[in-house]
Prior knowledge:
Helix 4 runs antiparallel to helix 7 and helix 7 (254-270) runs antiparallel to helix 9. By secondary structure, this protein is of the alpha+beta class. The strands form four sheets. A five-stranded antiparallel sheet has the order 3-4-5-7-6. It has helices spanning 2-11, 100-115, 156-163, 168-187, 238-241, 243-246, 254-270, 284-293, 305-314, 325-329; strands spanning 13-15, 37-39, 62-71, 74-81, 86-95, 124-134, 140-149, 190-191, 200-202, 208-210, 217-218. It is built from ten helices and eleven strands. The chain has two domains: 3-7 and 27-149, Phosphorylase Kinase, domain 1; 156-338, Orthogonal Bundle (Transferase(Phosphotransferase), domain 1). Adenosine-5'-triphosphate (ATP) binds at residues 68-72, 74, 76, 89, 91, 122, 148-151, 154-155, 194, 198-199, 201, 211-212, 214.
Amino acid sequence: MTLVIRERRHKQALSLSLPKSPSISIPSHSDFPHQIHVPALLTSPSSHVDSSPGIIKDLSDLEKLSVLGHGNGGTVYKVYHNSSRSFYALKVLRLNENDLGIRKPATLEAEILKRVDSPYIVRCHAVFENGYSNNNDGDKGGDIRFVMEYMEGGSLHDVLREHHRLPEEVICVLARRVLEGLGYLHGMNIVHRDIKPSNLLVNEKGEVKIADFGVSHVVEGRFEGNEYDAGTCAYMSPERIDPERWGGENADEFAGDVWSMGVVMLECLLGYFPLIGAGQRADWATLMCAICFGEKLEMPEKASPEFQNFVRRCLEKNWRKRATVLELLHHPFLTPKFRCS
Ligand SMILES: Nc1ncnc2c1ncn2[C@@H]1O[C@H](COP(=O)(O)OP(=O)(O)OP(=O)(O)O)[C@@H](O)[C@H]1O
């Protein structure tokens, strides 16, 4: 069953048209021979994406179909909800009484997900927490389960693996959606802290949404200096990696999300992680040097001046000089020239 589903997921590709809201569209650009396809929704005629909130009352109503992916401390399943005849993604995070590193973020992730409601954020329909219980080995364990909007196209990481790199016209749409999502989150004092390709998911319409609030937090005061180990260090800003040198103690945490987004956008154009040389080992020391001390930003010669400036404004090492989300939303890169508005 799982194999059949996976096969269909890859074979039934749907060419993306340009819907009213910004989404990944297909430019007919000779430089970029690959069209971007997003796997179609499994075509049971009656299947649809549920739009009514609070419809999932019980986990036993969900039928597990396949594994969509694994993350830090958990697994994401594709599930089917019989009564609404809809597909969802079920994220199961293991909780262990001894594992404070998982429990605290998982609970916080649930709190954040309950608060957010935006077309630019992957929607959470329900959260179920199973308390600790003794198993046969005497260990205590439990889990927390998030019933999420199912994003048929997988993650931007999957898209990049398949298409290698994306044209500016597509990156522009992507950037606008991520910025709208960040603007919404920051407006609620939520900083994501882990913007990276595997946390940007694509639906069947080609719309990109922000997911995974596992290391996010609500800003209540100043930067909490001992938290710079949360998130994926490759996409972390200099002030999070080396707060002493880059003024991290007083940093505006929202600026860290802008940095991460800039890294992702450049990666989309180049087709590989942009801050270290191709083939270079991405260990902590190499990344740290590249992020905190690297002087030269590899920019493709063919990149438009608008794109180059956009990325440079995101990847400004000094967070005080870095562009804000608002500034970037008005940046010339996000203009009709790129079919972005
Ligand atoms: N709502 C969803 N719809 C479809 N696929 C999803 C959904 N959520 C997650 N996935 C898939 O499951 C994978 C694992 O997601 P998860 O959020 O657990 O971890 P991650 O972001 O990949 O890694 P990490 O936990 O290290 O940040 C994702 O990369 C994606 O491919």
